[in-house]
Amino acid sequence: MQKFQQYIDGGFSDGAAQFESRDPATGQVWALMPEARRDDVNNAIEAAERAFNSPEWADMTATARGKLLMRLADLIAENAGVLAKLETRDTGKIIRETSAQIAYVADYYRYYAGLADKIEGSHLPIDKPDMEVWLRREPIGVVAAIVPWNSQLFLSAVKIGPALAAGCTVVLKASEEAPAPMLEYARIFDQAGFPKGVLNVITGFAAECGAVLTSHPKVDHIAFTGGPETAKHVVRNSAENLASTSLELGGKSPFIVFEDADIDSAVNAQVSGIFAATGQSCVAGSRLIISNKIKNVFLEKLAEKAAAVVIGAPDDMATEVGPLCTIAQRDTAVNLIEQSVEAGAVVVAGGAPLKRDGIFFAPTILDCSNAHGAPCLTHEFFGPVLSVLGFDTEAEALALANHTEFGLASGVFTRDLTRAHRMIRKLRAGIVWINTYRAVSPIAPFGGHGLSGHGREGGLQAALDYTKVKAVWLRT
Ligand code: NAD
């Protein structure tokens, strides 16, 4: 059985305890993971604090930090195959997706490598002739970065990249559900040449590892990605250290299709919008809001595509939909579908787990036209389940789209650009995709509001968010 180690202060060690990780495609235990308990977490944070104050890191020029990040990006690209395979093995995310994603993970590091020496302060034109006043941008300090199991290499890159570019140090907590890719990533990071302690990678459970990390007095900022309920715990814990937080949480994103849309292109975007990553994606387009004029033809095409999706082993390049990562998610999907059907939702496709080894679930479409209060329209499944609502007018489409406590992503399909602009103005979401879905770039900020959290990842602002401003007054 494969065994992984945690990474603290530039060294690899077993945790205070160990736990087993299961392969979601087979249900079999395949690896032993290090469990960080209180002492491990404390050691990791203290190592990050020492590194933050060490001359090797604190006095390193921004350009030199950028070069190290560039080296890290190259190492990630060189080791892309191993990382993708491990992510697939531990999470069940299909190899097609993990391979494609790791390529742009390297691009995110490159982007932040280039930004490191472009984080500038500013001069203030104070109304006093004998005074020079300027702002320095300094790194915020020790960052606790917490990621969920889906897309960990990507979700950690959007934290580690800008944090290190700004000069912070990081303790990253990998998800206990599937820590293998992050623990392997630590081995690759170790070769890049950063001073010891600049990045520490641990994993463990909420009650001890998570709680100690988020309440620790030496943590200055918490960058969290996960579910909204967990985020509330994290924020409560941060009352202890008053660390700033950025929260990237869940979504229930509307995918709006008007009658003038290119239907085939919208169908394809909806298929990947909801079934990519087996629906385990925060930006999954999980509410199809469709013009009643094209609803039937659209659903027919969609159901046909859903039925034709290749479901199979995640490590097979031909597979389009793999297993769910955890049994808990499958159970959530089963319960929510049951309650929604009781509330009047009609199953158009799928609707149940598949009878095979592993945690497989049929790509599912629920028509909620007569079930506006159904839980499938309000709760995040984090699974391959699409809920459908019809509309007659643009105002109705908008009202349905905004009828959510989340506010992460949204998609609009129409050929009418004036209408697209009206929707862009009125949609309550951090991302609006027009005639496309799921497009991402290191240059574009990513994040939401409401139950989807606050703060942005990606783009220049994300690097600035890892800095604090110092106002300097100099009498001349
Ligand atoms: P989760 O909230 O259960 O766990 C996320 C991380 O938080 C894990 O590492 C977990 O160990 C840790 N954690 C749990 N309790 C904690 C505590 N009390 N203190 C500190 N850390 C704690 O989420 P999950 O089930 O692993 O992932 C699914 C969720 O993540 C979904 O809601 C999804 O939408 C969200 N997500 C959001 C984004 C985004 O960018 N907005 C991206 C991916 C996933």
TrEMBL record:
The keyword Zinc-finger does not apply. Residues 17-472 form the Aldehyde dehydrogenase domain. Coiled coil: none annotated. GO terms for molecular function: betaine-aldehyde dehydrogenase (NAD+) activity. PROSITE patterns: ALDEHYDE_DEHYDR_CYS (PS00070), ALDEHYDE_DEHYDR_GLU (PS00687). InterPro entries: Ald_DH/histidinol_DH, Ald_DH_C, Ald_DH_CS_CYS, Ald_DH_CS_GLU, Ald_DH_N, Aldehyde_DH_dom. The keyword Zinc does not apply. Keywords: Oxidoreductase. The active site is at residue 248. Transmembrane segments: none annotated. Its EC number is 1.2.1.8. SUPFAM superfamilies: ALDH-like. Belongs to the aldehyde dehydrogenase family. This is NAD/NADP-dependent betaine aldehyde dehydrogenase. It comes from Octadecabacter ascidiaceicola.
